[in-house]
Amino acid sequence: MGQPVDELLVPWQGAEVTEAAWLSLEATLMTTHAIEAYGGVQLGRQALETAAASLSGGQIPMQVEHDQTRPLRVRDLVAWVEDGDDGFSRLKVRYDVHPDDVHIVSERRAMSVAIRSPLDGREGQDVSSSPFELSADNAWFDDDALIEAEAALVAAGATDIRTERVYQFSVIPDPQIFIAVGSVVGTIGLGALGSALWDAVKTLLRRRKTPVGGQPDKPTRVNIELRDGSRSLTAVIETSDEAVAQEAVNAVAELASGVWDGKPTLSGVSGKRLLLWDAKTSTWKARNFSQDSMSIETDG
Fold it and tell me: Whole-angstrom Cα distance, residue 146 to residue 39?
């Protein structure tokens, strides 16, 4: 990932209305400047090139405030890297926003991108087919917290875990945890999956540290994705209450049963499906969305 850098939030650089009220935008997503929110982490130009290729190839979704429950519909996205006279490189994007989503970007002054990076010493590991993926925002959850959460999964029987840092390039990144589980869960059975996931999430919640400028009472957003081939179901829990988080994470095991045992959880659904935990009713609320739109993140 290169040397330590500071996170940068960059304002819109241009906007014009195109046919059928689509809004054409151009912006800077990230640069090679140092990022203070992550202790001075600095991206290299190659990292920006890789991100540009992923964006142009449609591999990165666009979301509002790094929140996958709030997708942004775009088309004709083009990304490239520019070198400035100041010696720093910038990742630039140009794209059109759906007419019904124009109000979202008009209310926000900047954009950013989120990326993942392996822990130190693990850069060369082949984790492309790992059944478990564990990551969290590095401003709120440091490497030691991630390693301890990983150990909790290992203790429950998980193998081949892909553990990474998340960098959200916004003014103040949100406290987020990400766990993805494939249909092959190693030696963890469905009956034990809920407790295994909770052990990992609980470890991270209890080791959470508020970064400079962050809000100590900011709810943590836990994103747990269950994958079945080309389909996936993502359960999102946002709360500051550990008891609420525990109840919801344990309920994820029931969703997993539906995903992998052929029950109707994903019946008739193609692509992605997303569920939000309602703490008042202790139930999931569904939200379906298309994978057609690409994603970067827009910040308020």
Answer: 17
